[in-house]
Specification:
Length: about 650
């Protein structure tokens, strides 16, 4: 009891400090736009003065929207957490907000008639679809808290990839929309505040009606049914209210991440124990946190002239909270399962088909293309071949490196769903290269490779260090990686909105384009891939023993710690080199090892080589599709593969049982 009181006292002190900071920042910000002596006049007798108009129709509505949107997200997060019995469940971690944003972007481009009834109904459909997909994936694992959050975060990543494709094709229509979708609270009237206030009022009334049923849900399902409660109906109703709140926020201000996580967490820390106090406290804390975050965003705009969208700022600050709360999440998960034992290898006919495909795809990519007159076949000696072959070789080398990196990380972690992209290694490599581009604009390709390697090593080391706290349990390790990817993605998003002079290079690197690949880069990519084969030969025994589990590997004489560090260094180097070509989110490192096993390549050496061939071929095929599908426009190969790899990861999760 004493500990709980101390915790509540610290929470009360924290709330007081946040409230004081919010008030101070708000009054200081308002005073910079309009002297305080004119505030009342601007409200009651506004003149056609620009400063007064901005104050009345810009600053004050933005203040109201920050409070209302924060309250809506806090209430939504509290509902999700209570109904799903999962303190990490909220609109960001369940993919709800990302699905709503994707639906709005799609409707804006291809079905604008759907917006005639209001953007809210479009975002609600997207929010319900994304949330339903995450719940369906986790259902086969009995809605395991970790499985649910992992599914939701990956659903959000897939929605982000699809949104990236829309931006690529329709950037002239969607650039402003996606800037707004990053969570900009800027207002030019009271319409957004009025819409949020109406939604929040209806949702608040629904929550009042649900209070007693939600209290019954604190029992287990059997106990609640024994009292006559319609458990399924209560859950569906509460989930619908939570999704509607998140959809309303997206429809009016864009995607604002992690307020629904931080608000209820702060309320629980302050001592909220009953459903009513959790819901009210979550809403109040969410309003306070988003209000303060938006004031910080406006302060940054006043100091630097560039105002970051508030949604990116909350993602950057909120994702670390996910890492802090993760170890406290109780979940009955099995220990990491040993890798599947080696069985009968690939048959000769299957090997023949495999080899034929590996040869046919690069040949097709080299010779077949589209031009102004349609499809045509390039013959030897055609000048266009001098432009195509560096792209093909670069794509193959990068895909091969990711395939090998994925095989190694899956073996060393005994986790078939691990990959450089899911664990955040690719994002770390991209962050390292981006940092070098900003600090040393004249850095060459070798410098970028070194910086990407450093970023990959740092991220991998952090994931593995955090993984030791829960004995490298598969789902917790994956969730840690996805959380780090979210943090890095938010930081990179701020860089992309900064207007940096080398923004074109950064965008090309993030998207994963081979458009400007040179013969030198192609040769370097191939040399690194061949070097990876040598490293695989040296690591084959260790990879085989890691597949049996760390205790068995240690008993058979493998120095587990040194072996793990060696594999991690190799994975980081391969991922760093590949990320400079494919971008941070391609999922080749996930798909290629699985495809190799399905072809019958099960021993570490055979699986690694086959995964390299499959990964390289996938990237070459993606590069060919990217340059022909929307000719004359170019689609980055990394983005093409991510559209297939993300759903494949969700399918893998859907197949896994508890």
């Amino acid at each position: 009891m004493t500990g709980r009181r101390a915790s509540g006292g610290r929470a009360a002190l924290l709330v007081g400090l946040l409230l004081a900071a919010g008030i101070a920042f708000t009054f200081a910000g308002l005073a910079t736009r309009l002297p305080s002596a004119l505030w009342w006049e601007a409200l009651t007798a506004p003149r056609a003065e620009a400063a007064e108009l901005v104050f009345r129709f810009g600053l004050l509505p933005r203040l109201a929207v920050s409070l209302l949107a924060g309250a809506a997200l806090g209430l939504s997060g509290a509902l999700f957490a209570h109904v799903l019995r999962n303190p990490l469940a909220e609109p960001s971690t369940l993919g709800t907000s990302a699905g709503a944003g994707l639906a709005l972007a799609f409707a804006t481009l291809y079905a604008p008639f759907l917006l005639e009834a209001g953007a809210f109904w479009v975002t609600l459909a997207g929010a319900l679809a994304a949330t339903g997909l995450a719940l369906a994936i986790a259902w086969r694992q009995s809605l395991s808290p970790l499985a649910l959050i992992l599914a939701g975060l990956v659903v959000g990543m897939v929605c982000g990839s699809m949104g990236g494709v829309l931006v690529l094709f329709e950037h002239h229509h969607l650039s402003a929309l996606f800037l707004w979708q990053a969570g900009s609270l800027a207002q030019n009237g009271w319409q957004g505040a009025a819409a949020l206030a109406g939604t929040l009022a209806v949702a608040g009334l629904a929550c009042l009606l649900l209070l007693r049923p939600l209290a019954v849900l604190e029992l287990d399902d059997a106990g609640a049914r024994g009292l006559g409660a319609p458990v399924a109906a209560i859950r569906l109703g509460a989930l619908g209210v939570a999704a509607a709140l998140a959809a309303a926020v997206v429809a009016n201000v864009g995607v604002v991440a992690f307020i629904g996580l931080a608000g209820p967490a702060l309320a629980r820390l302050a001592g909220a124990r009953t459903p009513g106090t959790r819901l009210a406290g979550g809403a109040a804390a969410g309003a306070l946190l988003l209000w303060l975050a938006d004031q910080l965003a406006q302060l940054a705009e006043r100091l630097s002239g560039v105002g970051p969208p508030t949604g990116l700022l909350t993602a950057l600050l909120g994702a670390p909270l996910l890492l802090v709360l993760l170890p406290r999440l109780r979940d009955a998960l099995p220990a990491p399962a040993p890798a599947e034992t080696d069985r009968k290898g690939a048959s000769v006919p299957r090997m023949a088909v495999f080899a034929a495909v590996m040869l046919a795809v690069p040949t097709m990519s080299l010779l077949l293309g589209r031009g102004g007159d349609g499809w045509w076949l390039a013959l030897p000696g055609d000048p266009v071949l001098d432009w195509r072959w560096p792209r093909i070789v670069s794509a193959f080398g990068a895909g091969a490196m990711l395939g090998l990196a994925g095989t190694m990380i899956q073996r060393v972690s005994a986790n078939p769903m691990a990959s450089p992209e899911i664990l955040g290694i690719s994002s770390g490599a991209a962050a390292g290269a981006t940092l070098l581009v900003i600090l040393a604009p004249v850095a060459g390709r070798s410098g970028l490779l070194g910086a990407a390697f450093a970023g990959a090593v740092a991220t991998t080391g952090l994931v593995m260090a955090l993984g030791r706290r829960f004995d490298y349990a598969p789902q917790r390790l994956l969730l840690t990686g996805v959380a780090l990817t979210t943090i890095i993605g938010a930081a990179l998003g701020l860089v992309m909105l900064s207007g940096h002079p080398r923004l074109d290079l950064l965008l090309r690197m993030m998207a994963g384009s081979t458009y400007l690949a040179s013969p030198g880069e192609a040769g370097a990519s191939l040399v690194l891939a061949v070097t990876g084969v040598g490293a695989l030969v040296l690591s084959a025994r260790a990879l085989g023993l890691f597949g049996l589990g760390a205790p068995v590997a240690s008993s058979l004489g493998l120095p587990v710690r040194a072996g793990r560090l060696w594999i991690v260094a190799l994975v980081s180097a391969l991922t760093a080199a590949a990320t400079l070509v494919t971008g941070p989110l391609s999922f080749v490192g996930l798909v290629a090892p699985h495809a190799a096993r399905l072809q019958g390549f099960r021993r570490p050496l055979a699986q690694g080589v086959a995964a390299m061939a499959i990964g390289g071929t996938l990237m070459v095929l993606a590069d060919w599709i990217g340059r022909t599908l929307a000719f004359p426009w170019q689609m980055p190969a990394g983005l093409i593969v991510s559209l297939a790899g993300g759903p494949y990861f969700l399918w893998l999760m859907l197949r896994r049982r508890a």
